[in-house]
Amino acid sequence: MHPAHGADFVATGEARIQQLPGGLHAVARFHGSATEIERAWPWMLREWLPDSGYQMDDRPCFERQGPNDGGGGPGLPFDCDICIPLRPL
Fold it and tell me: Whole-model pTM?
């Protein structure tokens, strides 16, 4: 297990740790700015999902942060995975 994910993890800022239920997810790699990710979510939900053969289930959607988190400030690019929980139609 990565040290940042272990029981000894201490956040350097405000953080909430939550265990998410597993299962099937659509995962889309994203690289861009905060403005661009505001367009990526609707595209996944309105364009990709209807033709995918799947539907969202009741688990939460989330963004999984990548190694380049854009910590330098607003407007800088960052990496993350857009994760949408799925079940077959």
Answer: 0.76
